Amino acid sequence: MEEGNSNNTIVNNVARAIVAALDWNSTPDARKAAVSYLESIKAGDIWVLANTSFLLVKKDWSSEIRLHAFKMLQHLVRLRWEEFGPLERRNFANVAVELMSEIADPCEEWALKSQTAALVAEIVRREGLNLWQELFPSLVSLSSKGPVQAELVSMMLRWLPEDITVHNEDLEGDRRRLLLRGLTQSLPEILPLLYTLLERHFGAALSEVGRQQLDVAKQHAAAVTATLNAINAYAEWAPLSDLAKYGIIHGCGFLLSSPDFHLHACEFFKFVSPRKRPADDSASEFDSAMSSIFQILMNVSREFLVRSSSTGGAIDESDYEFAEYVCESMVSLGSSNLQCIVGDTTTFSLYLQQMLWFFQHFKLALHYQSLQFWLALMRDLMSKPKLSVNSSGDEPAATNVGSTSAQVDNEKRKILSFLNDDICSTILDISFQRMLKKEKLISGSALSLGVLELWSDDFEGKGDFGQYRSRLFELIKFIASNKPLVAGAKVSERIIMIIKNLLNSPTPAQDLAVMESMQVALESVVSSIFDGSNEFAGGSSEVHLAVCRIFEGLLRELLSLNWTEPALVEALGHYLDAMGPFLKYFPDAVGSVINKLFELLNSLPFVVKDPSTSSARHARLQICTSFIRIAKAADKSILPHMKGIADTMAYLQGEGCLLRGEHNLLGEAFLVMASSAGSQQQQEVLAWLLEPLSQQWIQIEWQNNYLSEPLGLVRLCSETAFMWSLFHTVTFFEKALKRSGMRKGNFNLQNSSSATSIPHPIASHLSWMLPPLLKLLRGIHSLWSPSIFQILPGEIKAAMSMSDVERSSLLGGGNPKLFKGALTFIDGSQFDVNKEGYTEPNEADIRNWLKGIRDSGYNVLGLSTTIGDPFFKCMDIDSVALALIENIHSMEFRHTRQLVHSVLIPLVKSCPPDAWEVWLEKLLHPLFVHCQQALSCSWSSLLHEGRAKVPDNHDILTGSDLKVEVMEEKLLRDLTREICLLLSTIASPGLNASLPSLEHSGHVGRVDMSSLKDLDAFASSSMVGYLLKHKNLAIPVLQISLEAFTWTDSEAVIKVCSFSAAVVLLAIYTNNVDLREFVSRDLFSAVIRGLALESNAIISADLVNLCREIFIYLCDTDPAPRQILLSLPCISPNDLHAFEEALTKTASPKEQKQHMRSLLLLATGNNLKALAAQKNVNVITNVTARPRSSVNAPENRIDQGQGDTIGLAAIL
């Protein structure tokens, strides 16, 4: 009696605790106590947990209590099942199955039925195949008793394979394989049962509806839905032949015609359509089943497309939704299993026709789905076959690869033969029409696009318009490569039609959107046809001649246009750009295009006084830019016209009809032309372009007047014409360096400057270009020094603050809409390139000028360093250091970051080893000293006070406190990452050729002590070695590297990790005691502190490896690594001894890292968040069905150190 009372007491207490835990009206303390009590029950006596939970799932209790009790039972099965004996587990299973019978009541809530089914499924998963075979007959019997029972059994069958389709770390790999094997063996029983339930209850639902027994009909319908959900759980992995053999494919296909169930049935086809063809003997059965799926879906599609074309009004949104799901499955089928129907000409042709109808459909969602098929098909057909290399190198393997390649090519050609001219024409027509956003098309436009539902900003779930349009362009390119004649004719026909409409339009500029959208389409077609590698075009001279005639005709139409309105002129210039690749192969047309561009340039007004007509200036600049694009695309075809262009430029300049910005662009086009004519021509062009600039640039008068003392720049900012003239000179230097043989990323490493005997075309000009630029930059830098800033005029001070665009960028927002005539710097800021000094400068003009000189000036210096020896030998290090570093302490973070990125990193990469002594110390020492102090202070403020202290804050005080804090933190992180990137660059392999590798050092820690070298031995061929040899450089750098591990910025840690790895190598291979002590004590501690931050989870493997290398290779020569590990809170000497013992048994770095990781977790009591963050446990949610097309993006929560102690102290 007492025991029964005790049980009742526990049951009542648990019930009250569940209510309190779920009741938000309870006090926090009450909820906390309730949760704690429930956890104690779950962790306590297993019999108490089982008995209590089984009592609480009875109907006597509320739904909330019953649901929680079911979850407690699932917890027991999932985590404590092994504590029961075999007989007890079998009894438990029987009770759970009985629960299914009890809860099979129409009045029961769906969630309770689902949890019951989930519990039984969990038990079967835990017990395995034997229990399943015992239970199956009783489940079949239960399912035959009525629709509610059938629904419950289907639910259970749906949850049963969950661990196969959803990853669950609680289920080990072996058990998952056993479950898969057991369920696969049971498919001959499961699938027929599911088909029977589907057929039985669908028929019963129809019958009951006919008898007006709607409540009973709903029960049967629920059983059908549950059965379809169960089928879908097997669709992703059950053999397709079984799904066909037991009628599942047929049954689901039949239900596609039922409005009540067609979406669930379509889900089945969505899962099976992308299934991969097996390579074993079952391939023919797979092909047969997949062919039947093609037929089913094509029949449904045909019915919809016929209805859609004939009675559009009779189709509602639910029909379109279903059609989209069908089309999605059709796309998967065609993208993954087209081989199943290619052999059947009739079926394949009909399938392509249906996908074309979807592509043509006025509904954007259907067109969008079909686009993915056509793009995937063309990518596959137009791709080159990949040749696999046989590891043994046998000749027969190569022969087999060749024959396989030929077979693949033949199959592709066979499929391409079905893509006739009509199909390609239709795809191009629709693609051309759909390249316009709805918002761009002015209502009442003369260029009607019919009933097409165009892309709109309101269109959800399909990405952005830019991605969609780029896919259209890619498809157009593939079609053009395959059918050049069709593509050429279509694009020409549409453009000529658009031009005629514009010529007849009363307001052509308003109808320009359609023409602008076609410009990139023309570019796609022309570049694809004339790219020189048109393998599938057939190479026929007749085709080439016909294509040539088409584009000659189009070019004549374009050249005949006499537009003078700026927007129209700009559009015409873009069209002539797009014809560039055509001009490369047909040089006879180049002269007329160049003449037309100059005609367009002269048609636009030269001096614009009314700001509202500044679009003319913008159009002039775009026409000049067209020269650059055509020079790139036409290549050597433009060379015969260089003299004519030069003469016209000289004439326009002599007449005063060419602005400096325009002259710079034309000069850049000249450099592009010269680059294809050889180095001699390049040098001559450079001399011709630079000589006029040098005459003004090298004059000592302006330098003395404006650059000899800081306030001279104030005077310069009032001389607007001269100010902008200097700007255009500096920007042209930048263009000349970029266009004179320099290639992105082609920074010379240690000795590459002597690798070629041909001097860089611009090398001889550096000696006069750079000294005045350094003076100009020094003057700009000095404006920020406190003593000078105080005496500056208010307008200059205001101009030194950030622009709105820079603030927006720091806040992570998109750029504000650019005004006409504004071009964009690399960092996103605007600059009006029309400024030529005709008006008094205002604050914005001065800000743009200062920013423009800084941006281009830094780029000129950075690009100059990549030339190598000519730069380092002709430049005076003192003048460079004075200009760049003199005012480093008063620089804002944004400017320091830019200096490092644009000048110092290229300089470090390019500096020859014999120049390290002269250049690196003078430039890097003051930089590192300042940055170490500034970053340390700002990070300390951010981590402990929640707000970074940055010198830029006087620029960003406008706005809310939150916005200011975000901008400050962004500035801090940007500079931190750039400094760490500089350290990573210093440690790059190309600058450290003499650093040895640990891979060849033998077994654990066996570095021969007699082979250790002095640090000096590495200083001449390793930049890290050079840096460590010079203590004044090494101290701030090493301090930065230590502190970076505890700054919550994983990107910075990734970069500093590679530098630290090089330092560790030098500590191992040199006899430098100080360096060894630093690595063994300070660096080892810092890395462990870094592992305490969750933000470093992404780099945790590298951090553990650093700990491994330090301990293994230095613990015998320095006691610090052992001392640091033993100081951690949860480690004993025995643990450390066992760890070292384990290390002696393996030479595998991977196993050593695992031992190190395990020891660190043990020693810190699992408090290293970077390591613990990787142990994510996935919990299966058995109640919630997976939604269609859902994407679960994991959230990475980064510990920002809010008030926490950072480092070993936090661990201890």
UniProtKB/TrEMBL annotation:
GO terms for cellular component: cytoplasm; nucleus; RNA nuclear export complex. One of its GO terms (biological process) is protein export from nucleus. Residues 317-1175 form the Exportin-5 C-terminal domain. GO terms for molecular function: nuclear export signal receptor activity; RNA binding. SUPFAM superfamilies: ARM repeat. Residues 110-268 form the Exportin-1/Importin-beta-like domain. This is Protein HASTY 1. It comes from Durio zibethinus (Durian).
